[in-house]
Protein 1
Amino acid sequence: MSVFKTAFPLPRGLAGYMALAFSLLSIILTFVIVEVVEHKATHHVEETIGRGLAEVALQTSDKLDRGMFERYREVALLARRSELGDASRSIAARRAMLDDVLNSYRYYGWIGLAGLDGKVKVAAKGLLEGQDVSARPWFGRALEGRHVGDVHEALLLAKLLQQEGGEPMRFVDVAFPYHGPDGRVNGVLAAHLSWAWARDVEESIIAPLEQSRQVEAMIVSANGVVLLGPSDLQGKRLPTSLLAMADPAHPTWRQETWPGGTRYLTGLSRSRGYDDYPGLGWTVLVRQKVSTALLPIELLRQYALASGIGLALLFSIAGAFVARMITRPLKRLARSARTLQDGSARIPVIEGGASSYEEVRELADSLNHLVQDLIRRSGELELLNATLERRVGERTNELAAALAQVQANEQRIHTIIDTAQDAFIGVDLDGRIVDWNTQARAMFGWSRSEAIGKPVALTVPERYRFSVEKSLARFAETGELGLLGQRVERIVSDRNGNEIPVELTLGLVASGTRPFFSIFLHDISLRKKVERMKDEFIATASHELRTPLTSMRVSLSLLAQGTVATLEPEVQELVDIAHRHCERLVRLVNDMLDVQKIEAGGLQLDKRREAVLPLVQEAIAAMRGFGRERHIALECECPGGCADVSAELDHDRLLQVLTNLLSNAIKFSPPDSAVVVRIERLPQVLRISVIDQGSGIPDSFRDRIFQRFAQAGSAGGSGLGLSICKGIVEEHGGSLWFTSVEGKGTSFHVDLPAGVADPAPAAARADGEPA
């Protein structure tokens, strides 16, 4: 930058910058105008010259076609003259007729008659008479109906005719069959038209342009060979791309790079024949170098640049003069503003006149108002500063007191957490441990310094770590975590891998800049041990009670049925009461054994694939008598072709579930109503629904409806039925759930996989696996 300033010193004042801006804008505007004009003019000139070249090509091709048409028609008329084919006329007479034709047009090189045997019978000036021409292309083409041939070099006539200049002698053949007096074809009349006539056509049209505009013309055959043109291209084959035309029926032009690398504006016109002359497919090309064609544009550009530079200089001088006029009042205003440094309270008023203008006067007035406002505000700021200093002191004392209180509260919270009976773990949203109390150290074996920063997943058994990471990722995406605010049982592991059952409470602390999860864990190993002892006691007691109860039930059943002896009515009533209570005890013992098996993971299922509809019908038949006693109708619905649906299931256990659900539905249904069992095949599951029209499940009971010994109302029973049903359904890999509306009824739904594979035991989800 310093080098630039030294080489090109920048202006020091507004006048210099304005003069520089005028100069730069003038130069930029000149270049923009030159580029725009050059672009538009170049396009227009190319279009104009290109169309002109295409028009010249069209005129040349049209003149060629018309000239060939004249010769074509002349030879055709000559072939129709009967005296030429009249053998009775002398050779000399017929030769004289051909001599007249040959002399009528100086470009006829040879005219003669050849018989059907291919030998020349008579020819102008006697040339080639007696020669065999049957192998010449024009002879065969004339007999086939094609009467004109393309340009070719002379073979037989090259030695007989005098050549003009250094070019080889070339001809265009025109031949027609001629007839005798009897109307039959006697041979072929042929005329060789010298190609020199095409050079005359070129000179008549192109020569004037070649001198003034440096234009070149070419006549190209149908196969791309240059028949007439510049000496370096004549006889050579041109690339197909140079001869391609968008519409062969109309002349066109384009800019092309020719062999050798020179770009030309090229006009093209394709020969189309004239009247009955079919044409030979010649293409006329007229080209002009792009540099020559666009020379006026380059001159115009130079003139425009020179004019622009001159205008830039004039604008620079004018800009400097105008800038001095504009800045003179501003300088006076600056000198007046310096008086403020001397203690003046205002800027002297700048009078009007030639050296000032309205904007400067308004600026002076604005500066005066600003100075007065600054003086007033300076006084106010001094007063406000004194007030702020007092308030800052007060606020500082208040903040110090608040900080001391916060620190005391923080110390109190740390003390409470550290002395709590439960283990406490703080976990950030990334799953890293950020807090760890003394009880956590006692439970897991890691010190606080060892635990801080480690993933919380290390505190659970390895089989559950993926589930913990997945739950954290789901919370990061959706902000939802099902365990928040709940007290649940889970399994954790210490640093030695020992598993510990705990009761866990999870909360989200969102205050502060970094939210985190607070986790309290209570060791329930002792409670679990007591529960296992209780379950073992229940199982043992149930097994021990089953044998005597079975004997008592059989004995009482025999007495109640009168099999042993006929009892007195009073005795019969007592026996019936004892029999009913014995049956109830047996059911209670069986239910307790089922609960113990489900919790211990020892419930064995004998699953087989079978149709579901017969199983449902069997359950309805088993409960129909109970429903009849309470005036409840039992119905089965199987919409949508579910009659043939099947699943892998344990027949007896699922029958136990359905009869239990039907029994509950009958108990809680009003008389003269119906209980419906509906089978549905859904996209992922097979659903069996038991629907009643009872009073519904109270809201206060819904959360514990599947717990053991839970009962609603006074319907009787052990309170184990729904808990057992849920365990059996989950062992099938399904789920048992309900929907209920108070006063309108309840629906229990059994969802089974349509193709059940043995699922993981339900106990695996209840022993502490994280959600």
Protein 2
Amino acid sequence: MLKLTDIQPQQNEVYLDNNATTPVLPQAAEAAIHTMNLCYGNPSSSHMTGIRAKYILDTTRSLARQVTGATNGEIIFTSGATEGIQTSIISALNASRDNNHNIAKPVLLYGATEHKAVPETLKHWNQMLNIGAEVVAIPVDSNGILDQQFIAEHAANALMVCTMIANNETGVFQDIKALEDVIRSNNPDVLWMVDCVQGLGKIDLELSKTTIDYAPFSGHKLYGPKGIGVLYVRESAPYTPFIAGGGQESGLRSGTENLPGIASLNAIFRLLADENDDTFKSHETLLAYRTQLADVLNEVFPGIVYNHDFDCSLPTTLNFSVKGLSGKDIMNLFDAAKIRVSGGSACSSKVAGSFVLDAMGKSKWQSEGAIRMSFGPASTQQEIDNACEAIRNAVSAMQNSCLILSDANDSFDSTANGLQQWIYDAQCTWCYIDKAAKEVILIDPVPELVSKFDTLVSCQNYKVKAVLSTHKHAEQVDAPAIIRELLGDKMSADEFDQLGWSNSAKTEVELANGDKASALSIGEKMLVKVATPGHTDNSVTYILGTVENGKLASEAIDYVFSGDAIQIGGIGRSDFAVSDSDALYDSIQKLAAITNSQSLICPAHDYKQLFTTTLSIESLNNSLLAAVIKGDISKAEFSAEKADMDKQIEHSADTQLCGNIKESIDPSIDVTPDKLVSFLVEHDDVVVLDVRESHEYEANRQEYLADQKLVNIPLSQITEFVHDHSNDKTDASYVCICRSGARSDAAAKTLKRMGFENVYHVPGGFALVS
């Protein structure tokens, strides 16, 4: 286990995720440490040590009033904004219950782009207190501004209205005066909470000059420690303590006060209140910072789109998307280059969009590819300069990897060669590159990856030999046709069938079972098309291998692109209107006859991020599949069992699954970060696989770890690695490492499942390895 002192920021780290949390100001940390060491009294104690502690409490409360403009009402210290939100909502709902409101159809209104803490708390306490109101989202326009007409129409029936002063994802701020006018003109008595977390230090606040009833704040969003916050409650607003007990905070919030946290707020509030101190920068300075960052982003990302209007957003937040790049690609690149930002999706096959951008009506690619870059009101010019330099340096690695094109039209020699798996929401797109021949094929593309492929082809001037689908559902977008139109003269103008196969492909290859099949060349290899209906009536399998004397022997096969016929851990479903389980039975037997048990199968879906499989592995885990291959089961028996399997999919949580995936995966063997160096010293023959993508590796190249060379094998190319190292499964030892441990875990599990005996991974990855 790592010691706490081992966990430190990386050298030259550029932190641009202040909307998530800020670093603690030295003055705030010093105040907290001083209080812990020397002012350790309990503010409720009547002796002199307690009186000194109470002085810290009282002066901080006074300073809080000063910086928030709360000349009256209550200022209550909390554990943070979530507690403040809970307290506000419980107080409002409890008051509505006590007042026996006579509204026939009561509603609880909240902004559609609010932090999840607000709607989830409303739903929870609405149910727990048996209020019976409908929780309703207030729509926003394309700029994220609340629909005032909607508020006007619903305010009369509202028991509570919850809005925010500025959004945490986009920085979009609301016109509080305009909101107040529409709320109060339609319901003077409705209780109104404004989440002010992102406003303090960036927007002038005069709470007592408004009719805001509740305003929560959080210390860790303004350079204080986590676990401390403030709640403003208007003088006339009802209040129900969320935490009862010893009666601290004048009975408003029991529990011994977090005095060190409060002391840190004392230091921050003093800086905010001091007009002669420049720790917190002026609005004009913050605007200049944003302009500088935006200029650099515009320079390095020609396809950038900002997801908010700068005129109605805080200057400290930039939310953007880049056409053709996933948020994961950008965030992983920046993280490798020591630039900390927030992305909309994690390192997994599941793509998650931004509910904030969805509410604003932004396109799917913007929502799913969004990056939030946020600095703080105490950021310095040097920090912004460092950030701009780091961004320029990082993005050059993306250009080298052909993820984006350079405006200078530089020619980059991409290292990509062989097979890559591009995954989007568990859908697999397979890209095979023959670098020597400068040829490429694409199999089962999804529309969201069209731009990525076009950029790769344009960057390397590749000839596109084929863009293919293994099958097509009626409602499915024709991605191959979209790509062909986009590529124009970058591929031949042939006639194509519905799956993208060229009608001019006249070459025929003899398969292992004696059948003849249409084929086309890519470099020195051939891609063969085999009809394998069953999942759909148009399903095919593409087989890539080396043809000799017109024959493709099973042992000469490199990859089998099986679509949804054979999946990792299951057989594709056959209960669609265009499915036929009898045909699927025949197709499975055909695949077994023309391939071999160790041929690498590359399916159209990868639900568990395991990349590839073989008939041998699948037969061990799937008795039904094994029975079909051996001929131990009839078509009728197969159809009956398969129907039972498919019914289980229909009743599952995800009805979109194209197969019934049930196999459990053995966990990886961990080498914890604190043990990694000693492990590498003791196992000097181990190969360290850095499974980050090549642009991440190049953004902050680290070639050695404990004197052992790192080999960069991007996770997207792990199937190629399995193919190329099939003879090293028992002799070689591998340690997989990545940015955080998620991808190295996937790589290690894949290698172990494919028969590699000595495989380890590093949980926490480079984030915890110094």
Protein 3
Amino acid sequence: MSRLRIGPFGVVLVVWLCWSSLLMGANSQITHPEEGTALQVIKRNLIDPNKNLSNWNRGDPCTSNWTGVLCYNTTMDDGYLHVKELQLLNMNLSGSLSPALGYLSYMKILDFMWNKISGSIPKEIGNITSLELLLLNGNQLTGSLPEEIGYLPNLDRIQIDQNQISGPIPKSFANLNKTKHFHMNNNSISGQIPSELSRLPNLVHMLLDNNNLSGYLPPELAKLPNLLILQLDNNNFDGTTIPASYGNMSHLLKLSLRNCSLQGPIPDLSGIPNLAYIDLSSNQLNGSIPPNRLFENITTIYLSNNNLTGTIPVNLSGLPYLQRLLLANNSLNGSLPSTIWQNRTSNGNESLILDFRNNMLSNFSGSVDLPPNVTLWLQGNPICLNANVVKFCGSQSDDVNNIQKLTNSTTVCLNQSCPPPYEYSPQSPLSCFCAAPLLVGYRLKSPGFWDFQPYIYSFEDYLTNGLKVNLYQLDIDTFVWEKGPRLKMYLKIFPVSDNYSHVFNRSEVLRIRSMFTGWTIPDSDVFGPYELLNFTLLDPYKDVIPLSSTSGISGGAIAGIVIGAIAGAVTCSAIVTLLILRLHKRKHHTASKKRLLSRISMKIDGVKAFTYEEMALATNNFNSSSQVGEGGYGKVYKGILVDGTVVAIKRAQEGSLQGEKEFLTEIEILSRLHHRNLVALIGYCDEEGEQMLVYEFMSNGTLRDQLSGKSKEPMNFAMRLRVALASSKGILYLHTEADPPIFHRDIKASNILLDSKFIAKVADFGLSRLAPVPDLEGILPGHVSTVVKGTPGYLDPEYFLTHKLTDKSDVYSLGVVFLELLTGMPPISHGKNIVREVNIAYHSGMIFSVIDVQMGSYPSELVEKFIKLALKCCQDETDARPSMSDVVRELESMWNMMPESDSRMTESSTIDSGKVMNPSSSSSTTKNPYVSSDVSGSDLVSGVIPTITPR
């Protein structure tokens, strides 16, 4: 028998090849195990009623449901893929945020916006030093702000608005030197605004409105060199005054201190040249309105509901962009200067509202003729006794903006067909261009104006330039003002007009969405900060980006890929180690191994030790014509012993993946297992440096071979159900009746063998582990902690991530086998994972489209029950899977529901020596109606009858 010889140069070559392949694998496959475990813990903390996290571990980084966004992006470092972005926007999630988030130390974007997450913000987020965007707004978070967040050196944006967070703002936030955006509005934050925040060199937006802040307004905030918006409305700075230093905030665009219990005079604001919006209403400010010059950029002056006295100064005249001048409910007196509205030029879209109600104004100075776009309210002033102005003194409602629709549809296209959800692109240069838009919920959080109409065109220009799309692609469908004031709008973004494509391609959808979710659209001084409310994909995009609400990939896909890479690493390491040992200690190693096997074999009863010569004789010297299979362990031969017994001989090859430990494990385990659905071990060979195991011969080969079309006749549904039941009974025996119980750890279709009667038997126990035993206190652990081993595509994702092997790990693998029985597909093929593909088909109502066409006709009700059971076995979470006893019970129930003729025919057909029953010979007498494998519809959500293309 020839042996491999290799010198030192060969060892170096093998080392280099292994290292190169590992680096290549690492660059594309290996996710950091610590982060993988953390992700699963995070996921378990988030209750997900719509199963929107089923794509958590998909290789495709981003998915969507109808309104939400899920992104799971990675970056490469130190030989691992690390989580870079975790975006769960608008996914209807509840539960809490896990401290395990702190393990995602390479993450840059953490986005859980617009869910129902409760609990507190974990302080461990402060460990993510690479974090740039912390986006938690629109949830139900409580508790205080962790001071650890103040030590994130790269944080650009913190959005925790619209939660129920309480407690003070930590002084440590003054260390956030790169932070530009503090969005903490609409919470219950209390205490004093830390004066230390004045040290923040890059802060541009400070939104703290609608909280319980108290104390005084820190004058030091005037030192913020780049602050554009200071919005502190609806807090309680009881009795404090507005610091005079605020009049020197030279970059400020918006100052909003509405309803803050402020007293004292209005400061001189003439040192703020770019001020566009000032709201000091609903306080107890007194004194007169400062006569100092206001600059022409001003759009809004809101000073109502104070204790102001004196006259209306002339500096409120000649302001070309003024939209609102609201001075109601004060004690202003004297004349009303008509220069406020005179000499204004208007393009027809601009409006000016002047609210002077409930003051002490006595007369006009100038003309009372108002331009058509100016509204004047004077109710409650002495001037209303003048008959010339009575038209301005009637009862007026407050200025309320209702929803306004702006879509520019033209009647010329109405007679043509544009089937929903496709729409006409209103601005398209191509007449009546019909396309599927992206629907975007969008809100301006602190705009610098009160009237949007004059700014619509500039907004469209700003947003399309930011998104790098054509101006005609954007359509503002509707907009509405909300409390704040904040401007909410719904946008439609249409594909580029041409004659070939009426939808966006995948890369363009991902690009546009990432610009919204990554805040890469440049900030605007006029429009202020924005937020994404939802990103809705219409039906035509289901194939562009898989819908996470209908996708069911489990963690098995990524676990399979990763375990393959790990197996490669183990293989290379084993090969290199083995070669080096052979170069130096080969004879000693062989002798030691033989002595060890001899000691072990003496302890095993009922297992025969064969000689190498007996094995060679049985296989005609291992002739290739005797070979019936091959796997990672080695080759399998059909042999005939001297007594005429037909056996299967599994012969290990040098450098076998299983190795000595697995070889001994299989002998030890199989020697004491006796069940009709487990392959029986007859003996072994331990001579000439060989490892061979001798089994009973299974004439119909592996289940994988039967499903892959290698058999002459296909298996019908009854035969497949019988195989599933037999395999399950064998595994149930391992879990409950073996002493001690055993976890198989490598259940797969190629380890389920079929005898001459097509009775299924579970084989290959080389990776099996004994179940845990009670400790000294009688407590039985629920798992075995062990190094991860198994086969890609079948591997339990929880076991892979936690290294905790349980009986439910076998249940997951068996569930994958069930899906193979139903579909004929391998677990992983061409980048597709069987669990994901069946989940997609099931949730979209197209489940019968993936059934194996080789199965012939089948009872649809039972097939659907079988599918549900299989998918339940393949749940990501261990606790969601059934036990093996539940699986067997469910399969037995299905078997009892089988049409009697088919179950009897299946039983009788297996008596012949391996001849498979022709499905076409099935009787038409049934307990349950059959459905042809290529026609279905009654069970489909859509009601559409799918056409099945044979694979």
Protein 4
Amino acid sequence: MRVFSYLLTTLARWSNHIFVKTKVLPANPIESYGLNPELPTFYLTRLNSASDLAALDNMCKQLGLPAASKKEKLGNIELDRFVAIQNPPSVFSDKSRPSDAIEKSKAIFEALNADATLQAQVIPITILWGRNPGKEKPGVGTLLSSSLTPSWLRKCFVVLFSGRDTFVRFSQPIELRTLLNDKADVDALPHKLLRVARVHFRRQKLTATGPKLPSREKLFNSILAAPSIKKAIADEAKAKGLSHQEARLEALELLDEIAANYSDAMVRVADRALTWLWNKLYNGIEVNNSDKVRELADKGHEIIYVPCHRSHMDYLLLTYVIYHQGLVPPHIAAGVNLNFFPAGPIFRRSGAFFIRRSFSGNKLYSAIFKEYLTQLFIKGYSVKFYTEGGRSRTGRLLPPKTGMLAMTLQSMLRGIDRPVTVVPVYLGYEHVMEINTYLKELAGSSKKKESVLGIFKAIKNLKNYGRGYLNFGEPICLNQYLNQHQPNWRDAISKTDSAKPSWLNTQVANLADDIMTEINNSAALNAVNLLATILLNNEQFALSKSLLLKQLSLYQGLHRQAPYHKNVTVPEGSAEELLTHALKLDKFDIVEDGFGEIISIKEKERALMTYYINNTLHLFALPSLLAQQLFNRYSITVEESRKQVEVLYPLFANEWFLTPLKPNYIDDVFRYFAEQGLITYDGHVAMVNKDSEVLSQLEMLGKVLHLTLERYAITINLVKHYKGMTRSELEKTSTDLATRLGTLHGIKSPEFFDKKVLTAFVTSLKEQGYIQHSESTGMQATDALIELEKHLQELLPARIHQSIQNIL
């Protein structure tokens, strides 16, 4: 037996170099968990497997940790570092030999108990060969899936076919001293340790692979058997004069249109293809705050990813990142417009389920889609959907559409037995592939339908697009959210499809706004949006290199030392390094004369650059307003500044999904300005240093808000001067006036003329009591609106107000 074991171990190590490619999480466990390679170290694993030991040994060598295959001296005894809680079964039996994990664990505890000065770290290690979840109905896929306890023969097949997708995950070391202090009975501790470990390893596998997959036929039958679907089929048959069988076939066709057909093999192929694609397209993908998501998955939460929607690349990027964070790829709600050959079948087998733009007038479709979504939650699949409903053409977050969120909460009312948590996700790019198309659509062109030809054109145009950014936002646990905002929500729980509670719409709308706020709280600044923010607010869209670098450095420091939110990320590196990187993206020109270099935005890129500014404009809202106050007045008290901020901030918050104003934010920004020598500040009064370069820096920062304030001034002046306008007249005239003002002052920003943006502002004015509206009197200005107009007149250049007055 020893000879056989030795041969098996040798074979495993040899095959490890040929067939195995391992990914480790976290990337640096020593740093993440504070591991000490000098301490006596033991590795607690699920299975006593030669291939597992070889893979772990190789990873320990790479990380600089003690070798798992060696023995560890603890006090006066030597013990194996590799502690497996279960032996594999024999080839022809499901039973396995008893493990010696209890004896090994007991020896560790006894050694520590005998000598209070001894320290040891026991690290749970999850080793998965491939990420195949297996199927509820056994088959070939089950033979190759990552079973927790395969026989040695089955493990040979698993290593052969899935060795290139080996996954090793380190977990937080177990506090053995704490266990000893909590429980004096040393004999009971090993049993407790292994019980906890078994649960931990099962949960880790479920986190990485997801639940076993039902057959498509079985899933469809279970959905069609649901009481709500039976009723919907009966109603459909009655309404259309169909037989029950005909109505059922129609329901089956709808299910086939909607449902995903997840395939681990497709995901693995897609992973390789996307790895090539990202290397082709981007200089890197920066991911932040993923540890929060892994923690939720480890605790058994049902995770719903809700990202912003910038590009079709979002579908691929987020799923790719989730997969590489050791989490099961989510089922993705994709627009039915993407269900075309060959993309549709590929997306479907990668986890996409397809949704129509509208459910109205089709009760059967609505019932089936809701039941399908509920079944995903009940079975434990994570889900991803875009609450904006479509890609943003302006770069700003769109008003949320609440249908999917409403169905999610209704699914919770079916009594899901796990906590359900929404994870907002910010996605950003230094170049969005569809940006030229967006500009044409904003100019009036009709949206082109997705097609195979479009795919080939996209592939043909692949080039360096800079970096991509993915920041996970602050998770929102829906159970806790409802406990806080709707304490009686559990009274509406029903195992069947119950009537919609009266409070649902209100809570869904509030939740949607909170999600969008958390997305913006996690925004990523980058070289392109920072340079665009500077250059688009200068004449001729150009600036000398020296002044550009100073302004860029100012903005970097601002968001590090006076951050809008802790989750906002600021690019590493100096201003010079960021500029060097951005210049490689072919968006900027360099002109050199006898006085030095001038950096400008390429003419063809100027209108497009507003898109990137809009990704992060909300981060500059308050600093820009404060800079404009200082530039205009030279001296201002904190109290005076705060009064004006409190008038305008609610409008900003409504437009950009901002968090409530932090009490010390104004003070933080003023202190940063003082540290940079722009002002003197004693905690009460801010006074500008009147050096011309300082004034220039404040002026540039103040201009960031100008277009927004100009849009406000247009609508407010129309309400003030033309009393009794209808809402539609106000919206149309505001758009016309914006277009005229844009022509006079060379404004190229597409959103400045966007009717949707102006319409949203009118709604905000009405909700906040600035205008009164009735069918008989039309739009009427309130005293608050007159006061608001005075603030805008104080902040904006006189030429803008004069242009508006002349047009009126």
